Amino acid sequence: MSEPRLQVLEVGGIRMRVAELGEGPLVLLCHGFPECWRSWSSQLSALAAAGYRAVAPDMRGYGGTDAPPEPDAYTMLHHVADMVELVRALGETQAAIVGHDWGAPVAWNAALLRPDLFRAVVGMSVPFTPPSRIDLLTALEKQGVRTFYMQYFQAPGVAEAELEADVEASIRRLYFSASGDGPGRTIAGILAPGAGILANTVEPQRLPDWLSKEDIAYVAGEFKRTGFRGGLNWYRSIRRTSELLAPWRDCVIRQPSLFIAGARDDVLRFPGMEARVQQLADVLPGQRGIHILTGAGHWIQRERGAAVNALLIEFLRGL
Predict the structure, then answer these.
(1) Catalytic annotation on 298?
(2) 5-317 maps to CATH 3.30.565.10
(3) How far apart are CA 268 and CA 275, in angstroms?
């Protein structure tokens, strides 16, 4: 299979770099933090070989895509609009949409807001939660929590300084430590007072088979060029997103849907997450499966590429 073709498209009001491979029904692949299109390398090849047009953008704020400076330009309505405009820029009228980490809420909300355009949805790591009356940051504050990693990400410049001090080490430590091959501690959780996110990570003695030096160098090269501000601005728009999604509170997604996660994913350790996963059928009446992969951590499409590819293709062929 050939390498993905990289191109920059005008998508609404921004320029977006996308990786594309294959021909057939369109499948969009939305990455999370701190990643880029390359996190979907295995899926691009597998989907193309299975007869799909697989497209993985650098999401707003990342890689070769524009990164507006202000957090207010990173609400979920902006991200859904980017995916709507990307479908149009690709000359298509419908797509299946897949997302991991922050890309999962993009995929879920794209399906929620534009069911005419997104005919099916797959979320990885982060299960669907209908827009609610209280945002996550406010909920944490009400519980007396002040050092959750998302709260640490709020102050402009603080997390940037930590992560950009040694970009390659930051990427290597985050990817390894939050994986199923990592130290078994919670990375994306409560931080010690005064500590940064990297204090929860370790330096790997050796890289696992799914993570190559070349992958780390590529992703680190992107963040050395762009910095982390764009990706961190996604976290800084959480409250504004909650306000803007008020008209869709308590709505469900009726299209065919699928959820995939690693059993050792930190996200599944968030308070209330186990119950949320168990109750997904209530908010995803078109659900066609929940798959929690044993031994895998957060980077599910990298750590378990073959298994994820098989699940995706089976799901898509069943539409």
Answers:
(1) yes
(2) no
(3) 10
Q: Given 78, 79, 100, 298, which residue is catalytic?
A: 298
Sequence-separated (6 or more) residues with CB below 8 Å from residue 6:
17, 18, 19, 20, 37, 64
Residues 69/60, Cβ–Cβ less than 8 Å: no
Domain layout of the chain by residue ranges = 5-317
Half-sphere exposure of 100 (CA within 13 A, CB side): 29
Look-up: residue for tokens 């933090």?
33
The answer to whether 117 and 84 have CB atoms below 8 angstroms apart is: yes
pLDDT tens-digit series, residues 104-162: 999 999 999 999 999 999 999 999 999 999 999 999 999 999 999 999 999 999 999 99
Residue type, 220: A
Q: Is 31 a catalytic residue?
A: no
Task: Give me the catalytic one of 101, 181, 215, 265.
Answer: 101
pLDDT digits (tens, 9 = 90+) for 5-18: 999 999 999 999 99
Whose CA is closest to 29, among 112, 124, 126, 128? 124
Report residue 299's pLDDT band, with 50, 70 and 90 as the boundaries. Answer: very high
Cα–Cα distances (Å) from 240 to 41, 73, 131, 233, 237, in that order, read: 32, 10, 12, 12, 5
